[in-house]
Amino acid sequence: MSMRAMGSQVPEHPLDRVLDGRMCAGCGACAYLADEVEMVDLPHIGRRPVGVRALPIMVKDQIYSVCPGAAVRSPGEKVAPSNSAELLVGPVKEVWEGWASDAETRRGASSGGIISALATYCVEQLGMRLVVHTGMEKAEPWTNSTVVSSDRAGILGNSGSRYAPSSPVEALREIEASDRPCVFIGKPCDVAAVRELRRTRPQLDRNLGLVLSFFCAGTPASAGTLHVAEHLGFHDPSSIESIKYRGDGWPGRFRVRDSAGEHGSLSYEESWGMLARQHRQLRCHMCPDGLGELSDITGGDAWHRKAEGGDGVSLVLARTELGRRTVLQAEAAGYLTLAPSDVQKVVDAQGLVARRELITPRLAALRLMGLPVPSYPGFRLWRASLSIGPLKFVREFLGTLSRAVMRGYRRPEQEEEKEAQ
Ligand SMILES: Cc1cc2nc3c(=O)[nH]c(=O)nc-3n(C[C@H](O)[C@H](O)[C@H](O)COP(=O)(O)OP(=O)(O)OC[C@H]3O[C@@H](n4cnc5c(N)ncnc54)[C@H](O)[C@@H]3O)c2cc1C
């Protein structure tokens, strides 16, 4: 029985334990499954569902069964990796490096514009109805909103990474109600929820024409964005009109504009450093799936080619046969410019892959604290952790334990939010 339930003697639902234990990723699956639930941005924490606790147990059970704070199942459960690179990257059908052939798409995007180019291809050439993705919330530009685009202008208008919380799963009904297949774009945890949801919803399953993801080192809370804006001299959030984190070249700069026409910017390295250091939610540090294993296609920065210049280059991983076919068709139709690559290049490009080796000692520390942790069948986390050796394993375990005590992970996030305000 958890901390909260002990006082009241009412057994706590495991979904409440996910929330109390800070394992909510903020994906929005709760809001898709229950009308009463709304996703709200807690500035120092992340997007969280409001109204879950009062839901009937049957609805909670339904949500829990798809919640990435409870479990994420790797599709590679039955396919043994043949080397350490495959173990860290997960199952792939094919890997490429490249970019959007359209120069405007490539320039405006985060890395090579592959995600936006594929979404555009699906709408323009495959007749897909719409794209559910994420863009800047105009009223509060340091936060995000889920957006629905149905043409190139909408897709490009919302291209580029936004390093703040997002909940695109909340808008799956747009896809479910569509008369034609659609595209979903989300973080790895979002697509993990989508993979579970489509198992039991035939109409949703039929209408998910393509599921796209991107590499993700974790979501910084929106207070982090305001912190960077303040560092640039924008002290009054209400005057901020626009915030972009990337784009207009590779890797692109963090840019702020206010209502008086003042501009400020910071390099990608500095801004991401500030955001990542202090502002990522606990769930992200416990995530073994930084590379979107449950998508059809995922992409990330080809950092190993950064010296080549200011036009973005992406790594592109087809995770499913559908993904592989779609990438090749989009290339043949002139939407993508690609060259073959492999999983070793993904490892060379991305320090992020090493996080998988650290998850076992981190989870063990939280378990010792009595905190709930997600289960991750198929990710082979024990095997991945063997490569770090006993010393690093113990260091990681003790480091997580001391952070859990110092930062008070046992108290509810809402309390921390109140204290931070
Ligand atoms: C929080 C976060 C952490 C990331 N960490 C890494 C990393 O460690 N390594 C790495 O290589 N890449 C990381 N990325 C992804 C990277 O920044 C690029 O987005 C990726 O290379 C895809 O580039 P692209 O040019 O093909 O995408 P684009 O063509 O620019 O398309 C990006 C798409 O993602 C959607 N999107 C933007 N922000 C969000 C969000 N917060 N949540 C959901 N959808 C969103 C947009 O709506 C757009 O459709 C991260 C992205 C985010 C949002």
From TrEMBL:
Alphabetized Pfam families for the sequence: FrhB_FdhB_C (PF04432), FrhB_FdhB_N (PF04422)
Domain of life: Bacteria
GO BP of this protein: chlorophyll cycle
GO terms assigned for molecular function: 7-hydroxymethyl chlorophyll a reductase activity
Transmembrane domains' residue ranges: none
Classification via InterPro entries: Co_F420_Hydgase/DH_bsu_N, FRHB/FDHB/HCAR-like, FrhB_FdhB_C
Ranges of residues in domain Coenzyme F420 hydrogenase/dehydrogenase beta subunit C-terminal: 183-341
Domain Coenzyme F420 hydrogenase/dehydrogenase beta subunit N-terminal: from-to ranges: 96-171
Protein name: Coenzyme F420 hydrogenase
